[in-house]
């Protein structure tokens, strides 16, 4: 029997300055002296989820977990899934394979130090597992991850691969498989609504900030009808009305900060209407149902 696709709420647990839109304006060398707001904002997320009895998946940045292990413990204690969002928020396609592997290992260690031993999922910062580093998906499996949420089948200046699959699939292992005992990696592309032949993204915090609530709801219904699970992804700072002053251009500031004050109310509406599961539960169910297998390259 075909299952109804669920809604899945995912939170990338990082500070406001970790977004790549801030890279030039708040460089990594200055992160330690910035105003930290992730703890209070993650609490706001947890309170909202508790009010709706929704469990979500929190892709935690190792940098944050190392400085605020209590947040990781509070998320886990509330019954949510903890997944990995890298250690230092790199642009993955700029890393060598060894640097990518090292970053994964460090994040795992930091999460383990905070008490989280089981980490199945990964999401690349800004979805930057793109060609020519598609084969880094094999490294995820070698490092013990069982699912990935880094592919986004859309046009975007920094990421995206519009012709890649929209639906979940199992990634066929490489010909010379270094870990034949492991199951194939389950790849869960980010949600799109397909309209007039174009994959339309809508389920991220930026879209939630900038789109009116009715537009978000309409695109969500289209995606569900097309068999897509609706994976909403947000950052704790998007629930904050703090708008830092940086050297960003006016246009970039609008893109990075606009509409934050509307997100709590919109998210409240989304949580009230969906049927939510964690990404890990959804992934386990898909494996039971059986999925097609695909090899790299994907397009
Ligand atoms: Zn991120």
Describe the model:
With 299 residues, this protein is α/β, with parallel strands linked by helices. 35% of the residues lie in helices and 13% in strands. The protein has helices at 38-51, 62-67, 69-77, 97-113, 136-142, 205-210, 213-225, 250-257, 260-273, 279-289, and strands spanning 7-13, 57-60, 81-84, 121-122, 147-148, 169-171, 185-187, 192-195, 198-201, 230-234, 293-294. The strands form 3 sheets. Strands 4-5-7-6-11 form a 5-stranded mixed beta sheet, with helices on both faces. Strand 1 (7-13), helix 1 and strand 2 form a beta-alpha-beta unit. It is globular and about 50 Å long. 43% of the residues are buried. Residues 12, 14, 18, 85, 89, 125 line the site of zinc ion (ZN). Zinc ion (ZN) binds next to loops.
Summarize the model shown:
The chain has 299 residues and is α/β, with parallel strands linked by helices. It is 35% helix and 13% strand.
Strand order of the largest sheet: 4-5-7-6-11
Poorly predicted regions are: none
Cα radius of gyration in angstroms: 18 Å
Q: Assign the CATH topology.
A: TIM Barrel
Query: Whole-Å distance between the termini?
Result: 30 Å
- Strand content bin: 5-15%
Please tell me what the overall shape is: globular
Structural category: alpha/beta
Elements, N to C (H/E): EHEHHEHEHEEEEEHHEHHHE
Number of alpha- plus pi-helical segments: 10
Mean pLDDT: 92
Number of strands: 11
Tell me the CATH architecture: Alpha-Beta Barrel
Largest beta-sheet characterization = 5 strands, mixed
CATH level-four homologous superfamily name: Glycoside hydrolase/deacetylase
Number of domains: 1
- Small molecules in complex: zinc ion
The percent of residues in helical segments reads 25-40%
CATH class: Alpha Beta
């Amino acid at each position: 029997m075909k299952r109804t696709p669920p809604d899945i709420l995912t939170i990338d647990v990082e500070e406001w300055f970790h977004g790549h839109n801030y890279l030039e304006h708040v460089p990594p060398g200055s992160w330690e002296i910035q105003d930290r707001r992730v703890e209070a904002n993650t609490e706001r997320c947890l309170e909202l989820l508790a009010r709706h009895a929704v469990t979500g998946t929190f892709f935690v940045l190792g940098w944050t977990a190392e400085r605020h292990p209590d947040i990781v413990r509070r998320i886990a204690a509330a019954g949510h899934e903890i997944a990995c969002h890298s250690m230092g928020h790199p642009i993955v396609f700029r890393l060598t394979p060894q640097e990518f592997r090292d970053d994964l290992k460090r994040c795992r260690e930091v999460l383990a130090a905070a008490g989280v031993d089981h980490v199945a999922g990964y999401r690349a910062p800004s979805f930057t597992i793109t060609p020519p580093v598609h084969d880094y998906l094999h490294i995820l499996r070698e490092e013990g991850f069982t699912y990935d949420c880094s592919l986004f089948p859309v046009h975007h200046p920094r990421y995206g691969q519009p012709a890649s699959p929209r639906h979940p699939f199992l990634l066929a292992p490489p010909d010379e498989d270094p870990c034949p005992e492991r199951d194939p990696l389950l790849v869960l592309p980010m949600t799109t609504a397909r309209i007039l032949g174009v994959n339309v993204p809508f389920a991220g915090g930026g879209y939630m900030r900038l789109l009116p609530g009715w537009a978000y709801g309409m695109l969500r219904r289209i995606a569900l009808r097309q068999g897509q699970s609706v994976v909403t992804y947000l950052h704790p700072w998007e629930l904050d009305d703090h708008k830092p002053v940086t050297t960003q251009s006016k246009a970039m500031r609008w893109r990075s900060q606009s509409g934050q004050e509307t997100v709590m109310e919109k998210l409240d509406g989304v949580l009230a209407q969906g049927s939510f599961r964690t990404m890990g539960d959804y992934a386990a169910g898909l494996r039971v149902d059986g999925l097609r297998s695909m090899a790299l390259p994907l397009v």
